[in-house]
């Protein structure tokens, strides 16, 4: 990473490593720096944490960008550097977000993929999952009754932006809060572009506080609303490049939005459930970087002759992952795939325990999401 050269108030030249906001750079005066203060010393070296300064700042909209950087450790070095500290400073490794695996992508799914996927489809027809009513594809219609039009498409975008790192149930609650709040403020359709543009970022932050990373999401939503208003006349664009140029919107959200809002099927939205299943079911070739992005590329390549599945696969697998194949303690005891020999991830010990426990019946855990009752009834009828 290139070192940035900045002169401070006393004329000392400072070099900054690490990513810093302009504001936090400007705040790096010697009075805020802890460490040895030897301005004339050639070996001078300051190290400080921006946290020290940030802790005394009042919470306000202007300080959001500073607060976001409070966890970063920032290292400052002065101009003269006989020990060669600056010259030896190694560039930080860039986080890989886009990897070109094109040449290694599978062109066909493994033989057990269709066996499992078709079986999972049958399971999905017998269970109700949170994604069915409260997922991003349905939440706008559920809270506002809209199923088309500009406002509907904007609500889909907002539900997707709120959904990352957040359960569908919580996302639904927050969308309902936003809808009720904006209706009470006199906006005809409730949550809409005009309503977001008129709302202060801090108010928005408070309204969405239940979702993960709400502060950052409030900033992103405000910025995106401004871009939509100024550049797109308030309409959602129709290409993945334009959608992913919005702050906080990645390929998963982008492809899902195109499918939901415009019925455009140009990619697969891969979430953590899909990523996990693709890995444990051995549907995609193992890779050091088993990211959702890698899984998406594999799925799109494997299913290039089955594009009709591109929009279906997300809700099918997500619902299955929410209710049956859970990330912790999957319900192999009720899963029809468990006794077919086609699931590479089946918990055999759990099956054995369930067989021993047969006379006590199948348990439904109090914390379970969705509705498994039809699936359990099918199994008990077979016994
Ligand atoms: S791991 Fe268990 S719950 Fe998940 S698909 Fe396999 S058998 Fe079903």
UniProtKB/TrEMBL annotation:
Localization in the cell: Nucleus; Mitochondrion
Keywords: DNA damage, DNA repair, Glycosidase, Hydrolase, Lyase, Mitochondrion, Nucleus
CDD domains recorded: ENDO3c
Compositional bias segments (type: Polar residues): 26-36
Reaction(s) catalysed by this chain's protein: 2'-deoxyribonucleotide-(2'-deoxyribose 5'-phosphate)-2'-deoxyribonucleotide-DNA = a 3'-end 2'-deoxyribonucleotide-(2,3-dehydro-2,3-deoxyribose 5'-phosphate)-DNA + a 5'-end 5'-phospho-2'-deoxyribonucleoside-DNA + H(+)
Segments for region (Disordered): 21-42
Superkingdom to which the source organism belongs: Eukaryota
InterPro entries associated with the record: DNA_glycosylase, HhH-GPD_domain, HhH_base_excis_C, NTH1
EC number: 3.2.2.-, 4.2.99.18
HhH-GPD domain segment(s): 162-323
One Pfam family of this chain: HhH-GPD
Role summary: Bifunctional DNA N-glycosylase with associated apurinic/apyrimidinic (AP) lyase function that catalyzes the first step in base excision repair (BER), the primary repair pathway for the repair of oxidative DNA damage. The DNA N-glycosylase activity releases the damaged DNA base from DNA by cleaving the N-glycosidic bond, leaving an AP site. The AP lyase activity cleaves the phosphodiester bond 3' to the AP site by a beta-elimination. Primarily recognizes and repairs oxidative base damage of pyrimidines.
PANTHER family for this protein: ENDONUCLEASE III-LIKE PROTEIN 1
Entry-linked HAMAP family: Endonuclease_III_Nth (MF_03183)
Similarity field: Belongs to the Nth/MutY family.
Protein's name in the database: Endonuclease III homolog
Organism: Ogataea haglerorum
Lineage: Eukaryota, Fungi, Dikarya, Ascomycota, Saccharomycotina
Record gene name: NTG1
